[in-house]
Design goal:
This protein has helices at about 20-30, 70-75, 100-110, 175-185, 210-215, 225-245; strands at about 10-15, 40-45, 60-65, 85-90, 115, 115-120, 130-135, 145, 150, 150-155, 190-195. With about 250 residues, the chain is α/β, with parallel strands linked by helices. It has one domain: Alpha-Beta Complex (Spore Coat Polysaccharide Biosynthesis Protein SpsA, Chain A). The strands form three sheets. Strands 3-2-1-4-10 form a five-stranded mixed beta sheet. Helix 4 packs parallel to helix 6. The model has no long low-confidence stretch (mean pLDDT about 90).
Length: about 250
């Protein structure tokens, strides 16, 4: 894997909400082998929670007096003017070569939406049962196509509009499901998980110990509401919609 002689422009979108992980994530971005300019980092503060602001005043700040939940960051990401965009959950801490790995995969394997955790459905009309691939699932030393990508997303910025080509049917869940299905349906763009082999952890999408520590607290989305029921319904809806598209 070789770095590009001329680095592409990349935006990063982060969301601060209830977890004090922003500083750690900014450090992970600064440590990437592919540089990201400070002015291309976007930080969203949801609701009125206690806030820790970046020291770099070139970073773009969005302060919301309400919780925009999962879709808000994808709306703000539409403002990004770079060639590529990276969107991270607040419990993801990418290792130093992950952005490099994403770019390498797009340019040398297949263009698409790349992420760190993905789902391969066992039943095309249900979320459960499924096989999980990536940092918290099956580990492969190659790019694995999946039905949907979650936790982190790296793609060409122009693909973001796929999420908004159809009005979301659930504003509380399933933005990852919608993005992968709608990008495949409307743009012909598929979703992939980058290699997560145990002998090359510098290209992983996150530090697994840190993600497990922060991602399993009381703020974890899977512990709230009708998480799995909602996702089953969304898979059924988008699968049916995709299959009946003329």
């Amino acid at each position: 894997m070789q770095q590009h002689q001329q680095h592409p422009s990349i935006s990063v979108v982060l969301t601060s909400y209830k977890r004090p992980t922003l500083g750690m994530q900014l450090k992970c971005i600064a440590d990437q082998t592919i540089p990201v300019k400070s002015e291309d980092i976007h930080v969203i503060y949801n609701s009125y929670d206690e806030r820790s602001y970046p020291n770099d005043n070139r970073i773009k700040i969005y302060e919301l007096n309400w919780n925009s939940k999962f879709h808000g960051r994808f709306a703000i990401a539409l403002l990004c003017q770079t060639e590529y965009v990276l969107i991270l959950d607040d419990d993801m801490f990418p290792r130093s070569r992950w952005v490099e790995q994403c770019l390498y995969s797009i340019n040398n394997f297949k263009d698409g939406i790349y992420g760190g955790s993905g789902i391969v459905l066992r039943d095309q009309n249900k979320y459960i049962p499924h096989t999980k691939v990536g940092w918290n699932g099956e580990h492969y030393n190659y790019n694995q196509e999946v039905h949907l990508v979650g936790h982190s997303w790296f793609m060409k910025t122009e693909y973001l509009h796929a999420l908004w080509m159809e009005r979301p049917t659930n504003w509380n869940n399933g933005e990852d499901i919608a993005l992968s299905y709608l990008a495949r349906k409307h743009l012909g763009i598929k979703s992939f998980i980058t290699p997560h082999s145990l002998d090359r952890m510098d290209v992983w999408s996150t530090n697994p110990q840190m993600s497990k520590e922060w991602g399993m607290d009381d703020n974890a989305s899977y512990k709230l509401g009708n998480h799995y029921e909602d996702r089953n319904q969304l898979i059924s809806y988008y699968s049916s919609s995709e299959n009946t598209e003329s």
